[in-house]
Amino acid sequence: MTARNYIDVYETYDRFAEGKKVSEKEWDYTIIPRNAQMMKERYEIDFGRTILPTDQDLVDRLFIAGVDMLITTGIFNPDLGTALSIEEDEIYEGLKMAPKKLKLGRGKDKCSCKARRGNTLRKPVIQGGPTGAPVSEGIFTQMIESYAQEPTVDTIVSGVLNTVDGHPASTNTPWEIKATMAEVRYNREATRRAGRPGMCI
Amino acid sequence: MTGLNMLAGWTTVGDMIMIEQMPIFGGYTGGIEETAICDVATTLGSFACFSGNFHLDGPIHIRWGVTTAKETLQVAAYAAAAIDQNTDLLLANQYYPMAGPCTEMCLLETAAQAIVDTASGRELLSGSAAAKGVVQDKTTGMEARIMGVASEATCGMKISDVNEILNKLVPSYECNYTNAPAGKTFQECYDVKTVKPTKEYLEVYDKAVAQLKDFGLDIKH
Q: Which CATH architecture has domain B17-215?
């Protein structure tokens, strides 16, 4: 059946709220491994030894197995202890809403992230940075600048400040917010120092 | 629920939404194929239920805590190829090598994943969190340099040729997982005032590039 409409965040919440009750233990230890194993067998998924796939039919079966896994299993919400369910047409309706192209950054430092389709000649966007690794306050800007100054780097991914004004940036405290705001300032300063002020962060 | 509430705000004001997910090979999802199936399912779910604009993957190895092991590279490659061949979704991957900066192993690990992500059709490469991303100040721009250079050299290659390179490259560093070099901090790898890499790191980088060329990767510059 065709989807009634695209599932937005509000519909997602409602489906969680009205979803089937399930414990985290049952989800982790029974439902996920059982269904994943079932899909592997149903679609005869076996990668063999090669790291990159060369069998187009296997790749397509893996995609269908993933769709089936999502329909059969749903998505778990540990806070509510429920799982939402979704139909096949609703998945494809959601995929249609996703952008095929994103503009990242501004001005001369802007880059485009477009669907590539296989190993095309167009290189992927290179996002350089510590990727959430911990970074000292005293060298944060310089470390980010070391990425921003690399010609192959298109955008920046931040690290995490361990301290802000010498104070631990503890989770769920106001210091966490102060640290996050400082990270944004330091990242922007680093791209300016590298001569690329419009780089996407 | 905090995440859903924040998502409601971000989507309302029109922010760009990236959904991140790191499936654990050897965890609840089980083996390589089962983890890849769950990876595809959750990637699709991030677009279908959480308004994702692009998806950041990161299959991670339960024993090693890295994304650069053969098994996690396979999960990432197959999941990306499956979605790439059947949709126009924007797919990214993140980098957690075992070794620390200023070591050939760290650069080879990063290059291997860049080769896999590029050849499997991903649109964005995000990294790199050297030393598994858990040690303070052990990340530098030089790892991003090799990520970009390896990616550029891979673009357009035949998949069978890329697999041949990976068959030599991945075992060359995997054998060192139990004794991986810790590497150096950013302060030891760069002049912090000028933000220039040290001569030592440049030499290590050149050796890693030479190694990649020996394996068959056609790096021009």
A: Alpha-Beta Barrel (3.20)
